[in-house]
Amino acid sequence: MKANALGDLLALPLQSAIRAQSLALQETLAAIEAIGLDGGKTRAFHLRSEQVTEERTVDPVTGAVSTRQLVRPFEMSIPLLALLPISTVQIQEMNVDFTVEIVDIREQQIGTPSLPAAVSGPSLSGSLSLFSSASPQGPAMKVQMRLVRDRPEGLARVGDILTDLLGGRGQTGRPVDDIPGMPPEVSTILKNRGILTVPQFLTATDPAVIRADFAGSIGVSLAQLEAWRKAASQLQ
């Protein structure tokens, strides 16, 4: 059996744990790419339905109460990664217990610029050693390690950001495609800007001082934009 430096033997359990964690994360990444991504874009679960609400009105002259039901479209888009459980294995804690037999003791001076030579001492890190049985033949030392997972604060914050990005967002109101006279290429531009519904379109084009710039940014005239706003108001 080949002898190795004692420092290398002590590092092997930690290296093995890191390697095992890395392989597990690679499997998780492969699952994410296969399930949740398509050409670099997030695959989404789309749901379209209708919401029925009841509106009550009172005649100011007769006092009669009338009701009517309003049907409003409802659309929800949620990334698959936010819905499906992705299997992941993470090492939280690992206990290691083994014996090391020291074959050849080799002293090394601990040199640091901040400590005088008088307090420097020998180190066994370079001594040749073997993983030993329960009854070693030569000098030995029993090693007990407890490795605990610690998540750096920076990674924790990145995880929170990713969670926010993967959160589903519901849209209420009629789709922007329902605005009369609006061509598909314009509605596509609006959707790429996050304007998916009629109320969002009206909000994005209000107040009036921004409408000229908004119209120019989507390649239409101000008069055309005003016409779409008037038609969109009637859809509310």
| β-strand number | 11
What is the total domain count? 2
Spatial ordering of strands, largest sheet = 1-9-6-10
User: Which class do the helix and strand fractions yield?
Assistant: alpha+beta
Name the poorly predicted regions.
none
Task: Kindly estimate the percentage of residues that lie in beta strands according to DSSP.
Answer: 25-35%
> What string, H for helix and E for strand, traces the elements in order?
EHEEEEEEEEEHEHHHH
Helix content percent band: 25-40%
Gap between N and C termini = 81 Å
Shape: elongated
Descriptive account of the structure:
This protein has 236 residues and is of the alpha+beta class. It folds into 2 domains: 4-46 and 84-164, no CATH class; 173-234. It has 6 helices and 11 strands. The protein has helices at residues 6-36, 153-165, 184-192, 198-204, 211-217, 222-234, and strands at residues 4-5, 37-38, 41-42, 44-58, 65-79, 93-104, 108-109, 122-123, 128-131, 140-148, 169-172. It has a 4-stranded antiparallel β-sheet with strand order 1-9-6-10, with helices on one face. It has a 3-stranded antiparallel β-sheet with strand order 4-5-11, with no helix packed on it. The longest helix is centred in the first third of the chain and has 31 residues, at 6-36. The termini are far apart.
